[in-house]
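Look over both lines:
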Amino acid sequence: MEKSDLRKELKRLYSPKERPELVDVPELSYITYTGRGEPGGAAYTESLNALYSSVYTLKFASKKRGKDFTVMTLEGLWWWDDPSIVNLADAPPKQPWNWTSMIVVPDFVTAEMLEEVKPDLIKKKGKAVEKVRLERIHEGLCAQILHVGPYSDEPRSVKLLHGFMAERGLKLRGRHHEVYMSDPRRTPPEKWRTIIRLPVEA
């Protein structure tokens, strides 16, 4: 059976360094859930339950069609109502944060497949699944860095990224993107590994 492992296929994107670098992110398919509220709060937790349920259901449905895939790690886009806020260090209190939780999937996973499995998923997991979507996202040129440590210390790495961008005459052109490489339930905060990725342009 064919099996896709995007971690290997997209190794450059998911094997970052602890120093800023530029990467070119191709157009990719993501299973997404967009919401608003405090990171780690009730709405955010609901989004993760719906997201993971959908991805694993799609994995099993795809296997029945002869194509399997490795479930990738959780990612998130974050932004704020005030468009002047572009730096995580300047973000307001957590409550008004907006986010899209997402997991990248192979191109053979389609929106039609998602719609086929949704009715049963909604019955089993609740109406939150209705907000799950398949989206194509093309970030293109990005500056990224591997942040090691608790999320509360991320402004330190974001500052390095913005300095790197300024040195190269680059500016932000998209949303703050995080890729969560560690399971916070099993890893101490000082060892959490998070990719911070910022779309840029000249």
Observations:
- The CA atoms of residues 13 and 190 lie 23 Å apart.
- The chain has one domain: 2-201.
